[in-house]
Amino acid sequence: SELTAKAVGEAWLNYIVEDKTILWWGGLGNSTEHTAYLNLKRGIPAPESGSAARNGRVLSEQIGAEIFMDSFAMMCPGDPTRAARLARESASVSHDGIALEAAAFLAALEAAAFAERSLEKLFDENERFLTSDLMRRLVWDTRNICAKAGHWREVRAFLDRHYGYEIYGGGCHIVPNHALTLASILLGGDSFSRALTIAVSAAW
User: What's the pTM value of the predicted model, to 2 decimals?
Assistant: First the structure.
């Protein structure tokens, strides 16, 4: 049977050592994952444990969803549809909204990259996993500025003006990070080390 958010939530309770491993234990209403964990302990199952209805939109749209998705993408080489679904299910234990969309899109890109080398084709073919106007616009704007800019600092300045933390609040919102992650991939091209250098240097 296919993996469900409820099963992932139960795995959290069975295997995570509270206050010691894996998560940022930043407290209820501050850490998205800690809040979801406390919800699970109170008997609130996933995906409600991570829902915006329960935790608020700002808290549920922080960056953890994107951080958790790599293993699912790598488990599904050449199968972006399955990678996106698994990433979304897993991330919904603690996140909601556009955080799930960002995680699914990145998982799809990564899974599809096992079979496709062209970044342009990867983005074109996997934009079908974008479901909101905001994320479609973010991806389009990021691709556009990366194609035009002469240096990653120009890209970062553009993203800061349009998608930065002054606009998207909380501890570490998904929108600025997702934009910069995609920009680093695009600007890095075939060089993983260059993409990583840009991501780290840009400091989000």
Answer: 0.94
d(CA 167, CA 188): 26
Please provide the distance, in angstroms rounded to a whole number, between the alpha carbons at the two ends of the chain: 38
Provide the token pair at 80.
């972006």
Give the residue among 120, 113, 118 at the shortest CA–CA distance from 80: 113
Q: Residues 165, 175: contact at Cβ < 8 Å?
A: no
pLDDT digit string (tens) for 25-60? 999 999 999 999 999 999 999 999 999 999 999 999
The first and second tokens of residue 43, run together, are 């008997």
Dist. CA 104–CA 60, nearest whole Å: 15
Q: What is the 3-state secondary structure (H, E, C) of the chain?
A: CCCCHHHHHHHHHHHCCCCCCCCCCCCCCCCHHHHHHHHHHCCCCCCHHHCHHHHCHHHHCECHHHHCCHHHHHHCCCCHHHHHHHHHHHHCCCCCCHHHHHHHHHHHHHHHCCCCCCHHHHHHHHHHHCCCHHHHHHHHHHHHHHHHCCCHHHHHHHHHHHHCCCCCCCCCEHHHHHHHHHHHHHHHCCCHHHHHHHHHHHCC
Type of residue found at 43 = G
